[in-house]
Every structure is written in structure tokens, then in C-alpha cells.
# Entry
Amino acid sequence: MNKSIKTLAFMGLYTALLIVATAVFSFPVPTFNLYFNLGESVIYFIALTYGAIPAAAIGGIGSALSDLLKGYPLWAPITFFIKGIEGFIAGYFARKFNPLAGLILGAAFMMASYAVAAWKLYGPAAVPFELAGDFLQVSVGAVAALLLYRRMGKFFDRSCEK
# Structure
């Protein structure tokens, strides 16, 4: 099979996996129009395995589609931007320095960006809820992605590691 066709097929499957991890495995946050999900684990795994560009594309598109499917259309363009940049940062810095540095920097961007968005949309009272949920989400996602990446590394290009 042509390598580019195979890669495109895998990227489509990863986008679908991200949608399932975000839209299906999610839990609403009471009081505000927010939800916790497991999508970070997929974005971070893609960032570690394939790098910045695939993580940006899949993170942005898959997460925005998840917002639409979950009934959060207002968040979809915000999510497209934040998750795309988060995936890019995670993948870029994972390759430039090490996997953990990439995930920490991507997580910091995601948390700060969603905190600003929640503040603008719902006021300052939403920020602590957003930050708490996001911290849990990026922590669970980073641990899951690192474990999966280390376990499945023999099946993928491990160019993130030095």
C-alpha cells in the first residue's frame, strides 16, 4: 500500500479515536457549560508519535467536531484553535527537547487559553472550574499518552526520544 495513503488512513482513524475519546468519554462540569474528557490522551499520543503537524491537525479538527457532536457549537471554533495549537506545541517541543517537556508546554497553553475563553464567555467565576478540570484532564491525558507511547513504541517511529 502506498505510504501516503496508509498515513492518511491512520490519521483518519486517529481523528475518529479522538472524537470518541472526547465526545463519548466525557463528563459535564456542573454550573458552567464545560466538560471533562479523555481527548488529551489521544492528542498527546499523536504528538509524541507523529509530531507537531499531525497533532495540530487531528487535535484541532477532531476536538472541534466533538464539541459540535456534544452540542457545544459556541466552543467549536475556540476548541479548533486551542487544541490545534496545543497539539503543535506538544509535538514540536517533544521532538526538540523530550516528550515530557512537550506535554507540559502543550498543557500549559491549553489551560491558559481555556481559562481566558471561560472568563470571556462566563465571567471570572468560571475560571477556577475551568482550570481545575483542565488540570485533571491534561494530567490524565499526559500519563495515559506517555504510558501508551512507551508501551507501543516498538510499533511506531520513536523519533521523539533522543
About this structure: DSSP finds six helices and two strands in the chain. Strands lie at 26-29, 34-37. Residues 126-152 form the longest helix (27 residues).
